[in-house]
Design goal:
- The chain is mainly alpha-helical and 468 residues long.
- The protein is 79% helix and 0% strand.
- The protein has 21 helices and no strands.
- Helix 15 packs antiparallel against helix 20.
- The radius of gyration is 22 Å and the shape is globular.
- The model has no long low-confidence stretch (mean pLDDT 82).
């Protein structure tokens, strides 16, 4: 929870829960029933919720702006640079080249599986947001080529990034939870894979195919189309793959160096070297995407006859369609900040923590409540780990059981993605879905991911306990 100096929440869990439920209900009614623009609805409901929960009036605007700015600080650059890269890849014919290759190798019937598999691999080193914007041009190109709507191809790919981001180190949530609970990161990776792969297959791939058949949505035009000239003279496959792999390699390098920097494998004299810090900086996601945009502009733009104002116009045109995505995502972060600051999630977690239920189930439920209450999976995961750490230490849980506990808490942190989650707005807007459709597809899929992942983690926990 974001603390406000000199102010303490005096409302109990009951009133806070009613306020949170009412706020979400009003928000959905405004957007779905009255067709109010999501940005206006989110700001209005965030303001009303802040006053209703007793946040001091002179601090309300600061909380709102802080939540908005914090979210934009992590999302705006990634989305902006990502769509620039996506527009270049798409309009050069590069996305079509990759789509044709995947279809040629796996066949048309297995194209959704191929996209999901590629996203699982890409999703290991990079965060959900960055993976989404890099992979979407290929998803849209395959959907254009084969038809059948965007969900059939998009949900397996987007779900893969979500699964990897939630369950597996080196992503921040499971790494932080492992550190707080004292779990071995290597064992967390093993249990995370045991949970992530079947979870993706059942809840993203199979569910994506079923939903795609049931609900056929047109492929969004947000990234444009390749010109006739580009389709007649497309770039080479290895060129396109190299450009898309460039940010992944840089980010993976950054992740590896960060892991080394927090371990005892490197001496402090190396960690403090300027060259070491520069290489780490080059692999930070915004910097990696910036470098990739420049390389794509040179290789897929300038060297193919796209110069000056034409290239600048292409990049400029990519930003217009995503301005709404960026602003609405920031407003979702604003709503989440109000819910965090008000203490709604913590009050509910405290009540549940006193219920005397098994520690692995308590971890999952507390994490789920925090996720529903404030939106951020990483915040839910790390906060829950801190709340249950004393109980875990007292129970003497260790080894494989502790790793399974981390994965179970991670599973709770992904359920019921809704209007206070930045990912909800990114996925919905990028894939051309309204709020009602996003709730019926993305929210359901995220909940299935969490429940299935928890089930697998609970089985591992039980087996490890029986064997041990």
């Amino acid at each position: 929870m974001t603390a406000i100096e000199g102010w303490t929440q005096t409302l109990g869990a009951g009133p806070l829960l009613l306020i949170a439920a009412a706020a979400i209900a009003v928000l959905l009614v405004l957007i779905i029933r009255f067709k109010m623009h999501a940005l206006l609805a989110l700001i209005t409901v965030s303001l009303a919720t802040a006053f209703a929960t007793g946040i001091p009036a002179d601090k309300v605007v600061g909380v709102l702006v802080g939540g908005f700015g914090t979210t934009l600080g992590t999302v705006a650059l990634l989305v902006g640079l990502g769509v620039m890269l996506g527009r270049i890849v798409e309009t050069s014919g590069g996305a079509k080249v990759l789509a044709d290759y995947l279809i040629g190798v796996f066949g048309e019937k297995r194209a959704p599986f191929a996209l999901g598999l590629a996203s699982l691999i890409f999703g290991f080193p990079i965060f959900f947001d960055a993976g989404l914007v890099v992979m979407l041009p290929v998803v849209f190109a395959v959907a254009h080529r084969l038809g059948g709507g965007v969900l059939r191809f998009g949900l397996p790919a987007v779900g893969a990034f979500s699964v990897m981001h939630v369950f597996l180190p080196p992503h921040p949530g499971p790494v932080s939870a492992s550190a707080i609970l004292g779990a071995n990161v290597g064992l967390v990776v093993i249990v995370g894979l045991i949970a992530a792969l079947p979870t993706w297959y059942l809840t993203c791939f199979l569910y994506g195919l079923w939903t795609g058949r049931k609900l056929v949505l047109p492929v969004p035009e947000i990234l444009g189309h390749a010109s006739a000239e580009a389709e007649a003279h497309p770039p080479r496959f290895r060129t396109v793959v190299s450009i898309l792999l460039l940010p992944l390699v840089l980010i993976f390098l950054n992740t590896g160096l960060n892991t080394l920097a927090t371990s005892h494998l490197l001496p402090d004299t190396v960690k403090d070297q300027q060259w070491f810090q520069i290489i780490r900086a080059l692999g930070d996601t915004p910097v990696a995407l910036l470098i990739s945009v420049f390389v794509a502009a040179l290789v897929l733009g300038m060297r193919r006859g796209l110069h000056g104002s034409r290239l600048e116009g292409l990049l400029e045109s990519s930003l217009g369609p995503v301005c709404s995505v960026i602003l609405i995502t920031g407003a979702g972060g604003m709503f989440g900040a109000v819910l965090r600051t008000s203490g709604i999630g913590k009050a509910l977690a405290d009540v549940l923590g006193d219920a005397g239920i098994p520690v692995i189930l308590a971890g999952f439920l507390i994490s789920s409540i925090l996720r529903i209450a404030q939106g951020s999976a990483t915040v839910a995961l790390t906060t829950t780990a801190g709340l249950i750490a004393p109980a875990v230490a007292e129970a003497g849980v260790g080894g494989l059981q502790l790793a399974a506990l981390v994965v179970a808490v991670a599973a709770g942190s992904v359920v019921v993605s809704h209007v206070n989650d930045a990912g909800f707005w990114m996925v919905g807007r990028f894939m051309g879905m309204d709020v009602k459709t996003t709730l019926a597809t993305w929210t359901v899929m995220e909940t299935l991911i969490g429940v299935t992942g928890f089930g697998i983690a609970a089985v591992v926990f039980a087996v490890a306990g029986a064997v041990g």
